[in-house]
Specification:
globular; 5-stranded parallel beta sheet; two-stranded antiparallel sheet; 8 helices; Rossmann fold; alpha/beta; 7 strands; 173 residues
Length: 173
């Protein structure tokens, strides 16, 4: 567990998990939202975004948190471990609403991008398991056959994975 891709629906605790795991393993954490979004919620141009992905995965040790399906292949191919957060939609929706309520108007996810309410995000979260999860599983099957894949279905699963992350058996495939 030296190059870890953390993926899954918004609001399920990926960023918190990645930060905690990075602290536990002393591995640098890269939050993709902070890299992708430019001030004012402006998207990074796609060619530049793909190039940045190659730069990010070139490091020896990293935890990269985020989805971004158009570049998922790059991260999965470079990862030795993939952590797929697969929590129920209601849990993710609650996470998104809580994050918005806690951070309204504050730029938490990316500099210059204050937290805002988005019905579009809520729809995406509600449909993630139906629409995006199958694509994520296909990408894992296509690009991460070499990697250990861990599915996190509950917050307790995430806590348990962090607790046992220093176990030598988990550190190698």
């Amino acid at each position: 567990m030296e190059r870890i891709a953390v993926i899954g629906c918004s609001g399920n605790g990926k960023s918190t998990f990645a930060t905690r795991l990075g602290d536990r393993l002393d591995i640098p954490v890269i939050h993709l939202d902070a890299r992708y979004w430019q001030p004012g919620w402006v998207q990074m141009p796609r060619p530049q975004w793909r190039e940045l992905q190659y730069e990010l995965v070139a490091g020896d040790r990293w935890i990269i948190d985020g989805n971004y399906g158009a570049t998922l292949d790059i991260r999965l191919a470079a990862a030795d471990t993939v952590v797929l957060f697969d929590l129920p939609a209601r849990v993710c929706l609650l996470g998104v609403v809580r994050r918005w309520a806690r951070n309204r108007g504050v730029a938490v996810q990316a500099p210059g991008c204050p937290e805002r309410w988005s019905w579009e995000l809520l729809r995406w979260v509600w449909r993630w398991r139906r629409d995006s999860r199958p694509r994520a599983l296909d990408a894992i099957g296509s690009h991460a056959q070499h990697a250990r894949v861990v599915v996190v279905s509950t917050r307790a699963d995430a806590d348990a994975l962090i607790a046992r992350s220093t176990d030598p058996a988990l550190r190698t495939k």
